[in-house]
Specification:
homodimer, 478 residues, alpha/beta, Aspartate Aminotransferase, domain 1, 3 domains, nine-stranded mixed β-sheet, four-stranded antiparallel β-sheet, 17 helices, 17 strands, globular
């Protein structure tokens, strides 16, 4: 849904939600009465009603008999947000050889036991995905597939899928020619191919700090050097620091998540995204925009990608269905800008093509399965679960713990007291059957030693609550 | 089927087939009578009968009323086999920076038009695959798949599929622990990962001359240098030349196809494979064994891979279902020997996993779909079509043309008179709606300028015959 098609009450609901998130409306506090809100904000009473119903549905407010609406209690003693790492990290970016894989693999290995509480997982619960409906799309599309497609669709990609993806870009306000789209084996392959299209071993690549750990692994694999740019937990990449690095260093590419950054959940504002584009455009440094959480924004207004400002193909925009629909189908894509042809050729030399049946199934699902309806349900579930984890953290974690307030996705980033060693925490928690993602795996320089990323992508239950309590007990021992 | 389970009549049929193939029994010639054969070869008359029925079924001989069996006429004026390139190429191998991609892409581009006669294609006709049966396996397995599999199967691979593949190895006489198996996005990804596991940019890799063009592209992409080892059109890699190169040069890995080599169709004998293994073992140089045509042998006796002699994990054996069952499903694997763990990690950093539904569908098909029955039909079809193309070439191509006689697969390698420029031939043929794979795309040094690979993987029809005639007319203009 774009701004223009957004209903007035949805917009108003988003404004109230933002006030709740940033603490202006505290838990337990009464939200403005319908009459008051209508008068103050110049909207009709029915708009306010509709907005409050929506917010109730999203789990942010609740009605009390004869007293009106109140912000839900679940975050009664909310933890503070982390300070910006900009103020705490080194002011001048350095370049670093990356060597973090061993650590990452030991964390990933910990997730293999299905009995473990999956706070360390990279995916939401598979039970949140419409897998049965998707299976019907799969059965239908393999039955109807003309035999020659099993060969032809390998080079070009499934034409229906490409059209559906291009359509979703168009609806989101990004115009792009279909031949800019390369379908890939998930976003991970897209990111690998983009990076290889614009770098050679030894080159410098600007990444975020903290960064998605696979970013670090890929850099390590391709023998690239990382220039870590600090990320503000709410506002995203520190542009001043980036400008400084671009000035001083021969950076060959940037790999950033401009919305719902992993692990911080930060989303850059539209103005900031535009400024980022102009900065990169000035230096003619390509941007690899990793936007795999794009569909998981809370509320009603999708964040715009940096790609929407791209006027000369400098941005490679990578997306995927792995976080929003079907992880194991392994279907992602890149809108590759001026690098699309090169990316496509590299793909032919590495994996040739993503699975043809998976492409066809998703194409069918996008057309007939009700993707947007599913996404609305998914976003609501994730937002509710975020509230539950935040409230639980406030109950069980040390009071000086800080935690992010992402406006989407299924990750929270916790900054524990300095004395906490999150690698040790990881081991102790694992011994209790709880996984988590310790801070150092998100850094080329092993920073964030007192931080951890926790996944709230699984339906919240008594087991989750007990796990948080256990983590709290372990944290108290440091 | 292994030697031990092979029936006596099948073995006898294979011996007769070999005599036909190598010209001892010429087209039109009478094959020994049942009584004679029974006496001479010490087998029962019923064994001879069964063998002759099988050979008739395979299209190699035909019965004439009251006269016995005759070798089929379709290759009445057979073209000669090519000379060994060993005698003609440079004696000392040189190392070469590879730069062939542009040429390959222009050839691949030519295949996009579905109206083109696909002699240049890398795949057999999709109509030879049991796609409808496979679609049923797909529908079934996505319906029955537990939701957690859509995430869990990404790291380990589908457990049923791994077991089925390990079982096929076992039946073929190769014992390997299941954890040596890494499921990949087709063999192409497996080959890429193997190569990256044992080399760094700038390293030397021994490859075949002529080699599968993707080998050259992958070397180019990874900035590796090729050491071209000549391949005998019937007996495969020239071991003397390889031994010489291993002695002189710091070769880090070999990438060879020991059976049904692409493009020559050469298959090394078992003794030669054993000798190859011992040679590499002596130098401790790992072998990447590209064995994607393994299932497409004619007759009844599967070739053994070099992997079957591997006693300490030096061989990475790469296979795939893309040539024998379902190209676009993108499911391959590698039995990675001592490099399996490293390969598996590299995969997690590049594509994470092949498509989970495709893995499940193929696992179900292997268990319930009748893969071996399908393979027998497929082999028969390909062998018949080889006969048809050989006969057609003898009718239409210059008499001094030489052509290989592979014992499996769906490629023939033509060596035209020296004056023929196959790149020009490619252009002229394409203008007539016929594709082919010109020799130079199979060489890092642009050799084989008078050669071409033709695909007979498509059911032979009047259009194929006309296309061969047209090629003959073009060849006559050189």
């Amino acid at each position: 849904m774009t701004l223009s098609t957004m209903k007035r009450y949805e917009k108003f609901a988003d404004e109230i939600a933002e006030s709740i998130r940033n603490g202006v409306l505290a838990p337990g506090e009464r939200v403005p009465s319908v009459r008051h809100a209508s008068r103050t904000y110049g909207v009709s009473p029915s708009t306010v009603f509709q907005a409050y119903y929506l917010l109730e549905d999203r789990g942010l407010i609740q009605a009390r008999a004869r007293s009106g609406y109140f912000v839900r209690e679940h975050a009664k003693h909310p933890l503070h947000e982390p300070e910006s790492p900009v103020e705490r990290g080194p002011r001048q970016a350095q370049t670093t050889e990356v060597d973090v894989s061993e650590l990452v693999f030991s964390v990933l290995g910990s997730l293999k036991n299905p009995a473990t509480v999956p706070f360390g997982s990279a995916f939401p619960s598979p039970y949140l995905f419409p897998l049965a409906r998707l299976a019907r799309s799969m059965a239908q599309s393999v039955r109807d597939m003309p035999p020659q497609a099993v060969i032809a669709d390998m080079t070009a990609g499934n034409p229906d899928l490409r059209r559906q993806i291009a359509l979703r870009y168009m609806v989101a306000g990004v115009r792009l020619p279909m031949d800019e789209l390369v379908i890939t084996n998930g976003a991970m392959e897209a990111l690998n191919l983009c990076l290889q299209s614009v770098t050679r071993p030894g080159d410098l690549v600007a990444i975020e700090a903290p960064a998605f750990y696979a970013t670090l692994q890929v850099l390590e694999r391709l023998k690239l050097k990382a220039v870590e740019i600090p990320v503000h937990p709410r506002e995203g990449i520190d542009l001043e620091s980036l400008a400084d690095s671009l000035q001083r260093l021969p950076i060959k590419a940037c790999w950033f998540m401009s919305s719902l950054q992993n692990p911080l959940g930060a989303s850059m504002s539209e103005d900031k995204k535009r400024a980022l584009y102009e900065l990169l455009h000035g230096h003619q440094v390509p941007l690899i925009e990793d936007d795999v959480y794009a569909e998981l924004y809370y509320g009603t207004q999708p964040p715009k990608p940096v790609k929407s400002f791209d006027r000369d193909g400098l941005v490679m925009h990578c997306g995927s269905f792995s976080k929003s629909l079907a992880p194991g189908y392994r279907v992602g894509w890149v809108a590759g800008g001026r690098y699309a042809e090169q990316i496509s050729r590299l793909k032919l030399m590495t994996t040739i093509s993503p699975s043809v049946p998976a492409q066809a199934a998703i194409a069918d699902y996008l057309q007939h399965g009700g993707y947007d309806r599913h996404l609305r349900k998914l976003r609501h579930a994730l937002e509710m679960q975020q509230g539950a984890m935040l409230a639980s953290a406030a109950r069980h974690f040390p009071a000086s713990t800080r935690v992010t307030r992402p406006t989407g996705g299924y990750f929270l980033w916790f900054e524990f007291p300095e004395r906490v060693d999150s690698l040790q925490l990881f081991q102790l928690a694992l011994a209790q059957g709880i996984s988590l993602a310790p801070g150092p795996i998100f850094s080329a320089t092993r920073r964030f030693g007192n931080c951890a990323r926790l996944n709230h992508g699984h339906p919240w239950d008594a087991g989750s609550e007990r796990a948080m309590e256990t983590l709290g007990l372990i944290l108290a021992t440091f």
